[in-house]
Specification:
Blueprint: E1 19-23, E2 26-35, E3 38-48, E4 51-55, H1 62-75, E5 82-86, H2 92-105, E6 108-112, H3 137-146, H4 163-171, E7 186-188, E8 193-196, E9 199-205, E10 214-218, E11 223-227, H5 247-259, E12 266-269, H6 278-303, E13 306-307, H7 308-315, H8 323-338, E14 342-345, E15 352-355
Parallel strand pairs: 4-5, 5-6, 6-7, 11-12
Antiparallel strand pairs: 1-2, 2-3, 3-4, 8-9, 9-10, 10-11, 13-15, 14-15
Length: about 350
């Protein structure tokens, strides 16, 4: 009997309680998460003369909040000394804890200027009738889920948000709030400096994994906070959720941009361990997607005119089938169409792609 099993990826490991200094003035705090392929998120605490900034303070909800307080206690950081929460991008394991952090401490919230919570539309926050805010828990959960129903950009039925995530998000609802909100106090533009650890860090807008992903670079010590843009042992998911956007082209361009940053001594990812060869790892991720593109080129020849689900089933193993695999497949198909290698067939149904005949 073959008992060999591939060791877990770094990003899948469960959070431990250790607090370690991973760069000058930067502590790594690991917070538990239970999400597909992930066992922890790294919350980095950056000290300056005024206190601490926290990068990506974990999931929403009471359990994650208790874990954050536990790690802060182990690091010797009083909650009152946390003055800033920096969010790398709009996924709940990164922004969730900042909702309560900002509400309870008044901490400044810093994001890229394109940051937006994925359920937010202006009409959710503009109600003339105050009675509309008076929802019980069941009604709030049902209305929250309504914003996830409908069709994906590639025309399949959008799956609902996980009930667990819905519950966690609604735990963060404040009095007189319909849904939890997180508004940045400082929305960074690309290349804009922000003072952390008594030195300037520079914002790098790195879309691809999400449209609003933010990396931060410290040229003084060569530190790159890479978020989910560059991870040490898994390939970040590309979200094909933004209409009229070539997310894969954005991702490759962003990877090449961080690879070209000189003098990076250490990359601090949102999951997994710090690593030193940022350029090499970014190049490897680009190569991975070039291989994926070759698979798509082959499947287009094999399938002819076909929808995203058909391509997804050839690109991914069955255990991975689902909306995330569909969105990544869609991103690759959109990229090949933008390159002029395949055609997107106009129809009223699901998005369909076909070989281009010259």
């Amino acid at each position: 009997m073959n008992t060999w099993a591939r060791p877990p990826r770094q990003e899948q490991r469960r959070a431990d309680h250790d607090v370690t200094e991973v760069a000058p003035g930067v502590l790594r705090l690991q917070l538990p998460v239970d999400m597909p392929g992930l066992g922890h998120v790294n919350c980095y605490a950056i000290e300056d003369s005024q206190g601490f900034a926290l990068i990506d303070p974990g999931l929403p909800g009471t359990t994650s909040w208790r874990n954050l307080l536990d790690r802060l206690g182990r690091a010797g950081i009083p909650l009152a000394r946390v003055h800033t929460a920096i969010i790398t991008h709009s996924h709940p394991d990164h922004f969730g804890g900042a909702i309560r952090l900002a509400a309870e401490t008044g901490a400044r919230v810093v994001t890229h200027e394109s940051f937006r919570l994925f359920w937010e539309t202006d009409e959710l926050h503009e109600h003339e009738d105050s009675a509309a805010l008076d929802l019980n828990e069941v009604e709030a959960a049902e209305e929250f889920l309504d914003h996830f129903r409908g069709l994906t950009p590639w025309g399949t039925v959008r799956s609902e948000a996980a009930p667990q995530l819905t519950r966690l998000m609604l735990e963060e609802r404040r009095p007189n709030q319909r849904f939890p909100t997180l508004r940045p106090d400082l929305a960074l533009a690309d290349d804009q400096p922000v003072a952390l650890a008594d030195r300037d860090w520079f914002a790098l807008h790195t879309p691809g994994h999400t449209h609003d992903h933010l990396c931060l670079y410290d040229p003084t010590h060569g530190v790159m906070l890479s978020g989910d843009h560059v991870l040490p042992t898994i390939t970040p998911h590309i979200g094909g959720w933004q209409p009229d956007t070539d997310a894969l082209a954005d991702f490759i361009t962003s990877l090449q941009r961080v690879a070209a940053v000189g003098d990076v001594t250490v990359a601090l990812p949102a999951h997994g361990d710090p690593f030193t060869d940022l350029a090499g790892r970014a190049d490897a991720i680009v190569d991975h997607h070039r291989q994926r593109l070759d698979h798509i080129r082959s499947s287009v020849r094999r399938l002819g005119t076909a929808d995203v689900v058909a391509h997804m089933r050839l690109l991914f193993r069955e255990r991975s089938w689902g909306v995330m695999a569909e969105s990544e497949t869609f991103a690759h198909l959109v990229h090949l169409a933008a390159l002029g290698e395949i055609d997107r067939v106009e129809s009223d149904g699901p998005a369909t792609f076909a070989p281009r005949h010259h």
